[in-house]
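Person: Show me a sequence?

Helper:
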Amino acid sequence: MLLAGAAACLPRPALAGAQVEEPLADAVRSALSAAIASDAPPKPRFDAIEPRLAYLRWLGEMSERLKRQKSEAQTRIEFLETVWYESTRAGLEPALVLGLVQVESGFRKYAISVAGARGYMQVMPFWSRLIGDGQASRLFHMQTNLRFGCVILRHYLDIEKGDLYLALGRYNGSRGRPEYPNMVMGARKRWLVSGQA
């Protein structure tokens, strides 16, 4: 009984599946490498006040929701700013990325799956060789991990012609099976802004 209670307190293992390394056309590899290499800081710019206010409302609401996973306010805000920046930059919904992070790593920066995937978005080390600088240890850096994860998910969405279900399955290495996409889409609901569907 004591062992069962102690086991319940341990962090759950990271969920990443056995994502498959696929050959990339040179043009695709170049485009993905360029998307990863940009040194832009995760600070949003707004042309009008209303989008800025919407962003600040989102930041406040998500910060409250994330307190249990990230208790330190500065760390939580930096994480959310980066999620918003990288997801928006890749043309992804921030709620989807937060749902994916929740399922993949439980918001643990140093999570490693049994397949070897790393960090918040459980990026496989082969990606650092294919489109990065080859240093897989950098996948534990928050912005690097979120950028790789968002760029890779966008790539899979493009391959799957916008089919989110298939793109999520490909991201996890379980393409065609419903469990993983359903978990991510279920977790996504927690991160939608009030009034969003």
